[in-house]
Each structure stands twice: as structure tokens, then as C-alpha cells.
Design a protein that fits this description.
Helix content: 25-40%
Shape: elongated
Strand content: 25-35%
Radius of gyration: 31 Å
Number of strands: 35
Number of helices: 19
Low-confidence stretches: 6-15
Oligomer: single chain
Distance between the termini: 50 Å
Mean pLDDT: 94
Largest sheet: 5 strands, parallel
Number of domains: 5
Structural class: alpha/beta
CATH class of the largest domain: Alpha Beta
Strand order of the largest sheet: 11-8-7-15-26
CATH superfamily of the largest domain: FAD/NAD(P)-binding domain
CATH topology of the largest domain: FAD/NAD(P)-binding domain
């Protein structure tokens, strides 16, 4: 593409060059050599097609041997390298860097794990371990012979950021970005900035003034010429990708268009409607927590002699979990009532008081001040009724073991929250996901908590889920830093494992663009139907390639031809005794490594073929392995609901279910197709799956 820059290693071999493969076998001291006769593996490798050099080293990751590897690349004019050693998850980058320094394209290196997958799990049978190591090297060479060069891609990124939502998170992010000299466009749908800061008097747990926090943020925004604020505003267009967003905002009857390079979503949250619960909507003396905040500011609680808080309304049920902020807010407001009116009876009806850090200190203090806490259980919720003397709340106190009735001049409902209005519009504009409550879904709860799947789009604060004000502001800073990284660098970069499209047989169905979790494929051309990869956004998951009906898409380093060559090499001998396992590089491969580190032995029938994501496993791969006589096929991906590639495991699971139905109609034994979903810590589950599969397929008494 015209706005992408390829960073190439010009010494990399061209695809049409004859492959010259070098194989380097590691003893890893006694870690591999103790179970595998590494000299035999080296000698075996010398006889494989296109292998022109094979060496064995005690520690091939040592500085001395890395220098020797570079010498061999030069001396033997190698354009492909296979290393047989430990796990690619720790050492692949090191060996790529080494061959690149010798002038070889780093993406033409293939990694074989003879430690975690062989010596550590088959340490008691040297013959079995050696033969399996030979198989893995043969598979590695078969794939390596077909490897093509890969190149890093750079996409220019400018210095402007669109922030959607002008609450605490959005204003905090705006000031943090503007302080670095970047242009900020802050868009707020309401008439003024502030979000929930406009609705509350004080901030839990300390009770700091919300108005003061808001005024400080407004003053800083006003002092910055590089923050443009839109209020009463609606986004009507957000098109493009990181470094190239075209935005249109309609505000106060006028439309303005501008360019943005990154985006932050900070749209906040609103209370869930309580109408019909606990007499809310029937009695003016039943209010929500936010309504109480307004009453406290207006002095409208001073004549209330009995105030009852009911916790966990519309939360901690079958539909949603803890609202996160209800306990802290109730403690803060209960204390405010008692401090203003010490004679007022305040009751907090709770299921569990979930408080952290300073909140717990305040909880203990309000108990000393006379606030009464009554615990109830989910199966027996409180009941609000109207009496001649006003409201009454009846509740079964599980600590006393009896039902009690409390008079109530005011009932306060600590209700759950949902995403703010306009979430559906933003979802459509940005092509991002939100859950059923309207909270936006991050890329990965651990790996990308402030990022969406698409590069350059971030989220913060209560747009993601309910949270205390401190966490809201912290995430505002965090999202600002995430957005600032590419703006500071001036580009975003992707490694060379990306999708490539051959349009020769493309039917322009648009499935690839629809399926891509990163928005890395756009439809162009006169009719807007021709797919084009934005390489800098592509993560190489392979979803598009696996689902393309005409097989027009390939993933660099994981093409159909390369992966099937590894399958063929594995099944060249004793196919009916072997299980082909397609294993994702991230969590599933992590579980494989944990099994190795733990020396957890399992049957030697498995032959692992690494893919970046289980989503890369096309139906044709599984069928091909079965056609070649494999005893079984296993697909291992990330444990649900997370996936390094957002929805890759879901796509794979759905694809396998469809494949079973299709192959079943053709007479295949679909009991040979297995799947397992793993976290990186699930080494024992990986081992038990191997044992169960070998037993189910009748391989226990078939030596290999």
C-alpha cells in the first residue's frame, strides 16, 4: 500500500531461489542429550532433501555457537535454517536475530522443540525419543524448504487523537495526551463535560468533592490550545484505521470534519432502570444511589429519620456480576448522612460487603458511628411495603436467623450499571464489540485491557465496566499512554507474519473482511468488493485464510503448502500410529511447554505442528491428515473465553463442528477429530488429553 513502509532485509532469499537448508541440533547439555541421541538426529538431518549443512552443539544458544551459526550461514550460503532445541516461545527471536545478522531473512528460520516435546516427556526411552526427534526435524525441514521471506511493515501515524466521552476518564486522557503536545478532539454528547462527576457530591471512599475534581480538569483543558471540545455532539462518521481516521462530528447544529490518528473510547456508564423493583417508581421515597447524591447536595435528606440502603439491586444475579462500586458508595453516603444527622437511623442491607483498601477502613468507621449492617441472602431478598406510617422494609437477617422489619423514610437502591447511551452507534462506527449490558469489550482482559482489537483504538474507565473513580482516572492515563506510543514513534509496526491475498480466483465474497478481528482487510475497488490487506494491522491469526472459500489467502510462514508439507513428513511412516496436533503458539503451546518443564510423560504418538492461532486450522488440514492415514487429529487452542487473537478459538471450534458434520456424511470416522482448549498453565490437562486420545483410538498397544 502507498501509506505503508516495508522494512526489508535485502539479503533475504527470493522465493524462487533453490532452498539451501542448514540444521542445527542442540544437546542442551544433558537436557536433550540425556534422552535423545543428538548425533543420530544430526546425521539423519544431513540426508534430508535440500539440507546442505547439519551441525550439533552442546548449547546452540550460547554466544560462541551463535557466532558459529552465522559463519555457517555465510559459508554454506544458507537461505533456510532449522534449529532443533527448546521452545520457540523463549528462543525464536534470538535465532531469528542471529540469522538476520548473517544476512538471511529471519522469517526463513523454522523452530523444532526437541526438549519440551521430546526429551523431557520421553526421558525413559531413548529409542522412542530419538525417533520422535528425527520426525520433528524432518517436519521442520519439509516446512522450511517452502518458507518465503517475511518483512516488517510500518504504517505512518500522526499526532492527533479523538476521545469519545467527556467524563472523568475522557478528560483525564485528554489532558495527558495534550500535555505531550498532541492534538486532542474531545467529543461529549451531553451539554457539558463531567459525566458522573456532575451527578455526585463526593467521591468514594475519601469523600473528596466531585465538583472540585471536575473544575480542576476543566481548568487544565481550558488552558490547552491543543484540546478542541465538542459538546451536545454526535459522531456521524469515523472511517479508516490507525494513522488514517476520517471523523465527522455534529455539534450544536453544525458539522465539522477532521483527521485523527488514534481513538480513545471513554463513554462511561448509567444506572440500570429499577422501575418495578422495591416500589421504585411507585413511591417518591424509593430512590437510586445517584438520586440520593442529588438529595444530599440539595439538603433534602435532613428530615429523614430512617434511611435503608438495599445493596445488589440488578447485580450479582444470573445476568451480571458485582457492580463493583455499590458497597463503597453506600458506605460513603451512609457516613455523610450520619455526620450531618447523627440521630438518623441508617441501615445497609447487604449480601456481602465487598470493600478494598481504604474502603474497608471507612466501613469499620461507619459501623462505629452507628450505621447498622444487615446481611440478607439471594433467595430471600428484602421486601418494601407501604404502611400507615410510611415505608417499611422486611428482611431475613441471616446472622440473627430471624426476620426483622425496619421503618424507612427513605429507601436507597444500590443498583447495577450499564453502558451509556450511544454505545450501539459507536459500535457501528468503530467496528468494536460490547456485551449485553453495553460495556465495551477489551482486546484481552490480561494482555490488552485498555485496547480494542483494532490497532490504535483504546478504551478507558466505565466504558469497559463499572469501577471506582480512582480506577477510572488511572485508566484514563493508561489509555492516553497506549494511544501516545504510536503517535510518539510516528508509526505502528507489524512483524512479517501477515496475510497475503491472491486475487486470481477471488470471488469477492467479503468473508475475509467480515471475519478479520482486527479490521486489517478492507474492501476496495470500484464496487467496494475487492479485499486488500492493511499489513501493519494484520496479526497473522489466519482466520481469513482458513475460511476463504477459494483458498486465495495465505499467511506468511504458515501457508497451506508449508503446513501440509509438515503433515506429509510426519505421516510418511507409521501414519496409523500417529496423531497430528495443530497447536496455537500462545496458550496451548504454553501448556505443552509446562508439561515438558514438569517432566510429565505422555504417549509418544503426538506430532505437533505449531500455528499462531487455532483459527488458522482450516478444515482441509484436518481432512488431509485423515486422508494420509493419521490415527487422529487434535486441535489445541486457548481456553475460553479468552484468545490471543480475540475470537480465534471460537472461530476454530465452530469450524470443527461444521467439519464433523460434513465428514460424517462422507463416511469418515469423526471420533478421530479431537479438540482441547488450554490456558498456558494447563500442562496436566494437555497430558491427560494425550492419554485419553491414545486410549480412545486404540493406540496403547501399537509401538511407534
Amino acid at each position: 500500500m502507498s501509506d505503508e513502509t516495508e522494512v526489508k532485509n535485502e539479503a533475504g532469499a527470493a522465493p524462487e531461489e533453490e532452498p539451501r537448508v542448514g540444521v542445527f541440533v542442540c544437546d542442551c547439555g544433558s537436557n536433550i542429550q540425556g534422552a535423545v541421541r543428538c548425533n543420530e538426529v544430526r546425521d539423519f538431518a544431513e540426508g534430508l532433501p535440500d539440507v546442505v549443512a547439519a551441525e550439533e552443539g552442546k548449547w546452540i544458544c550460547s554466544v560462541d555457537f551463535l557466532n558459529r551459526m552465522k559463519e555457517s550461514v555465510t559459508e554454506n550460503n544458507l537461505n533456510r535454517v532449522v534449529v532443533a532445541c527448546c521452545t520457540p516461545r523463549t528462543h525464536e527471536k534470538l535465532f531469528r536475530k542471529t540469522v538476520a545478522e548473517a544476512g538471511m531473512n529471519p522469517y526463513q528460520l523454522e523452530f523444532v522443540s526437541t526438549r519440551e516435546q521430546v526429551s523431557w516427556v520421553h526421558r525413559n526411552d531413548q529409542d522412542v525419543a530419538t525417533e520422535k526427534a528425527k520426525d520433528l526435524v524432518k517436519m521442520g525441514v519439509a516446512k522450511a524448504r517452502l518458507l518465503e521471506p517475511g518483512y516488517e511493515i510500518k504504517l505512518p501515524v500522526g499526532r492527533s487523537c479523538l476521545i469519545i466521552g467527556g467524563g472523568a476518564a475522557g478528560m483525564t486522557a485528554a489532558t495527558a495526551i495534550a500535555n505531550q503536545g498532541f492534538q486532542v478532539y474531545l467529543v461529549e454528547r451531553e451539554a457539558e463535560l463531567g459525566g458522573l462527576l456532575n451527578s455526585i457530591g463526593t467521591i468514594a471512599p475519601e469523600g473528596n468533592s466531585a465538583a472540585e475534581v471536575k473544575e480542576a480538569l476543566l481548568a487544565e483543558i481550558a488552558s490547552r490550545d491543543n484540546i478542541k471540545v465538542f459538546t451536545n455532539a454526535k459522531l456521524t462518521k469515523v472511517e479508516g484505521y490507525i494513522g488514517n481516521y476520517s471523523v465527522a462530528v455534529e455539534a450544536n447544529g453544525e458539522t465539522e470534519e477532521f483527521h485523527a490518528d488514534t481513538v480513545i473510547v471513554a463513554t462511561g456508564m448509567v444506572e440500570i432502570d429499577c422501575t418495578g423493583q422495591y416500589m421504585y417508581g411507585e413511591s417518591p421515597d424509593v430512590v437510586t444511589q445517584l438520586q440520593l447524591e442529588g438529595m444530599l447536595q440539595a439538603g433534602e435528606v435532613k428530615d429523614k429519620k430512617n434511611v435503608v440502603f438495599i445493596q445488589c439491586v440488578n447485580s450479582r444475579n444470573e445476568e451480571r456480576g458485582c457492580c463493583t462500586v455499590g458497597c463503597g458508595a453506600s458506605v460513603k453516603n451512609a457516613r455523610a448522612i450520619k455526620e450531618a444527622q447523627p440521630d438518623t437511623n441508617v441501615y445497609v442491607l447487604y449480601r456481602d460487603m465487598i470493600t478494598v483498601k481504604e474502603e474497608y477502613v471507612h466501613l469499620k468507621e461507619v459501623m462505629k458511628e452507628g450505621v447498622v449492617f444487615v446481611r440478607w441472602e439471594y433467595e430471600r431478598p428484602p421486601v418494601v411495603t407501604e404502611t400507615d406510617d410510611g415505608l417499611a422494609v422486611t428482611v431475613y437477617n441471616i446472622l440473627l436467623g430471624q426476620e426483622i422489619t425496619l421503618p424507612a423514610d427513605l429507601v436507597v437502591l444500590a443498583t447495577g450499571f450499564q453502558g451509556a447511551d450511544g454505545v450501539e452507534d459507536i459500535k457501528g462506527l468503530l467496528k468494536v464489540s460490547a456485551n449485553s449490558d453495553g460495556f465495551f469489550q477489551e482486546q484481552h482482559i490480561k494482555l490488552g485491557p485498555l485496547d480494542f482489537a483494532a490497532a490504535g483504538v483504546h478504551l478507558a474507565g466505565s466504558a469497559r465496566n463499572p469501577k471506582p473513580m480512582k480506577d477510572v482516572r488511572d485508566e484514563g492515563y493508561g489509555a492516553a499512554m497506549r494511544a501516545s506510543i504510536p503517535m510518539t514513534a510516528g508509526f505502528v509496526e507489524a512483524e512479517g507474519i501477515v496475510a497475503k491475498i491472491d486475487l486470481t480466483n477471488c470471488i469477492e465474497c467479503g468473508l475475509c473482511a467480515k471475519k478479520c478481528p482486527y479490521g486489517a482487510i478492507k474492501l476496495v475497488g470500484e464496487e467496494g468488493k475487492t479485499p486488500e490487506v492493511i499489513s501493519a494491522l494484520c496479526k497473522g491469526c489466519g482466520t481469513c485464510a482458513a475460511d476463504c472459500p477459494k483458498e486465495c489467502i495465505q499467511i506468511v510462514h504458515y501457508t497451506d503448502e508449508q503446513l501440509l508439507a509438515a503433515v506429509d513428513a510426519a505421516l510418511e511412516h507409521d501414519a496409523d500410529k500417529k496423531i497430528i496436533a495443530f497447536v496455537c503458539h500462545w496458550c496451548a503451546h504454553g501448556a505443552v511447554d509446562i508439561a515438558g518443564v514438569g517432566r510429565m510423560e505422555y504417549p509418544p504418538n503426538i506430532r505437533i505442528i505449531r500455528v499462531m492461532c487455532s483459527a488458522r486450522v482450516a478444515q482441509r488440514f484436518v481432512q488431509h491428515a485423515l486422508d494420509k492415514g493419521a490415527a487422529g487429529v487434535l486441535v489445541a487452542g486457548c481456553e475460553f473465553p479468552t484468545c490471543h487473537y480475540i475470537t480465534g478459538n471460537y472461530e476454530c471450534k465452530d469450524r470443527l463442528e461444521k467439519l464433523r458434520r460434513k465428514l460424517g456424511k462422507k463416511g469418515y470416522d469423526t471420533d478421530k477429530i479431537w479438540e482441547v482448549w488450554l490456558s498456558a498453565a494447563m500442562g496436566p490437562k494437555w497430558v491427560s488429553t494425550q492419554k485419553e486420545m491414545v486410549k480412545a483410538l486404540g493406540l496403547e498397544n501399537k509401538p511407534i
